[in-house]
Amino acid sequence: MIDLYFAPTPNGWKAAIMLEETGLDYRPVLMQLSAGDQFAPEFLKISPNAKMPAIVDHAPEPAWGKEPVSVFESGAILLYLADKTGRFAPPQTDLRARKELMEWLFWQVGNQGPMGGQLSHFRNYAPEGDRDYGFKRYLGEYDRNLGVLESRLADRDYILGDYSIADMLAFPWAFIAKPLGASLDDFPRVADWRGRIKARPAVQRAIDLHKSEQNRGRHRADNNTILFNQSAASLKSGRTGDPG
């Protein structure tokens, strides 16, 4: 059994997609981010950055020993699960393919994901009077990353050729392009790639997981200081900002 600490956001979907694709037995632990579940001491032991998703694998592979294994950060989670199952990633013995996988995992968690997250903040959650500059800035960066992905897909259906954890990481932030105020009209290969992944039954199950709990703009920077605009004092107490 794997415990999945989860909320229905793009980052939460990443881990849920991989768990659904592999068929691993897992238990979703819904986190109420607007209420501060991510700052609970027991969760901080699993995810010291106070962000979900995170997992606890209660039946790790023998090489890990008998104790449960906790993993935080979506890229690390998907890589751990790929190695656990031997699926959706090149084998560790294929050094060139593995290097390519790492490049695209780091691209997603260091570029596409953070830029999409900031774009979402200024589109959906920032105070009305403070949105324009941030929205334009991060829309440009979001589109730049779509251009990187568009070029990559010029001669392949998926990021590495075959469907992999690289696609699972990148898909959620392309899936919500329209709610972010962006468009895939200038990125037809990305749009086709998005459609192929969205059609997968495992992906559909993952994005439907606790769907009714999506924020949808209810909790914003002007009405929820647990999610947004923490002070230096709250940082010292472990409250580290937008949690997903």
UniProtKB/TrEMBL annotation:
- The chain's coiled-coil residues are none
* Every GST N-terminal domain range: 1-89
- Classification via Pfam families: GST_C, GST_N
The source's superkingdom equals: Bacteria
Q: Which InterPro entries match?
A: Glutathione-S-Trfase_C-like, Glutathione-S-Trfase_C_sf, Glutathione_S-Trfase, Glutathione_S-Trfase_N, GST_C, Thioredoxin-like_sf
Which SUPFAM superfamilies has this protein been placed in?
GST C-terminal domain-like, Thioredoxin-like
Q: Which residues form the GST C-terminal domain?
A: 94-218
Protein family membership = Belongs to the GST superfamily.
Protein name per Swiss-Prot or TrEMBL: GST-like protein
